[in-house]
Amino acid sequence: MPKAKIALEIKGDTYNPFPEPFKTRLGSAECKNLGDSFGLSQFGVNLEILQPGAQSALRHWHTESDEFLYVLSGALVLVTDEGEQALQSGMCVGFPAGEKNGHHLINRSSEIATFIVVGSRVNGDEAVYPDDDFKWVVTDDGEWIASRKDGTPYQK
Q1: Within 13 A of 115's CA, how many CA atoms are on the CB side?
Q2: pLDDT score, position 36
Q3: Would you place residue 68 in the very low, low, confident or very high pLDDT band (cuts 50, 70, 90)?
Q4: Which helix (H) or strand (E) holds 26?
Q5: Measured torsion, CA atoms of residues 140, 130, 33, 78, in degrees rounded to the nearest 10
Q6: What CA dihedral angle connects 12, 14, 16 and 22, to 10 degrees?
Q7: Which of 5, 33, 64, 121 is the most buried (most CB within 10 A)?
Q8: Quick one: pLDDT band at residue 8, thresholds 50, 70, 90?
Q9: Where's the Cupin type-2 domain (predicted)?
Q10: Structural domain includes residue 4
Q11: 93-119: average pLDDT
């Protein structure tokens, strides 16, 4: 019987794939992709670390994938179509696939905030950005292109 794979340390990725003007607006954050180290393919698990003033993403919703967030530390503001809600350590929120409720988290505090994101990985899923002229266009060879909603690519 094979032994369970244990990852003692997973390095974070501070790469922000969004073009300007979005890249600067998102601020400083780190994402540690926890699930890929174990070969998980049906769902993703990320540890997100938001510096003061940073936000998790552009406000978005998913067409085919569920998303679940659990706050580990710090204070965050959840922004949805209904407005803003304060979140703190131990609180969680979920977003079912296809629910047209754009959401993201903002760290308006002076301390680092951390949270876990779990999301299903469904072929054909798209993230919809209701507040911004932005979408990801996937080419035939699987490359993701940052584009305006009309499909015009942003400059790199």
Answers
A1: 30
A2: 85
A3: very high
A4: helix 22-26
A5: -170
A6: 120
A7: 33
A8: low
A9: 47-118
A10: no
A11: 97
Report residue 68 as tokens: 């679940």
Q: What is the CATH number of the domain that holds 57?
A: 2.60.120.10
Q: What pLDDT, in 10s, does the model give residues 82-102?
A: 999 999 999 999 999 999 999
Q: Residue 16: inside a domain, yes or no?
A: no
| Among candidate residues 25, 60, 54, the one with its CA nearest the CA of residue 114 | 54
**Number of residues written out for the chain:** 156
Residue 78 to residue 80: CA distance in whole angstroms: 6
CB of 55 closer than 8 Å to CB of 26: yes
In a domain, 13, yes or no: no
Q: What is the residue range of 97's domain?
A: 22-147
- CB atoms closer than 10 angstroms to residue 80: 15
Handedness of CA 16, 21, 24, 25 (dihedral sign): negative
Q: What is the pLDDT of residue 1?
A: 67
**143 occurs within a structural domain:** yes
Given the structure tokens 């699987």, which residue do they identify? 142
Four-residue CA torsion sign, 92, 76, 83, 67:
negative
Q: Which residue type occupies 98?
A: G
Q: What sign has the CA pseudo-torsion 73, 43, 82, 92? A: negative
Measured distance CA(84)–CA(78) in Å, rounded: 6
Contact 12, 31 (CB under 8 A): yes
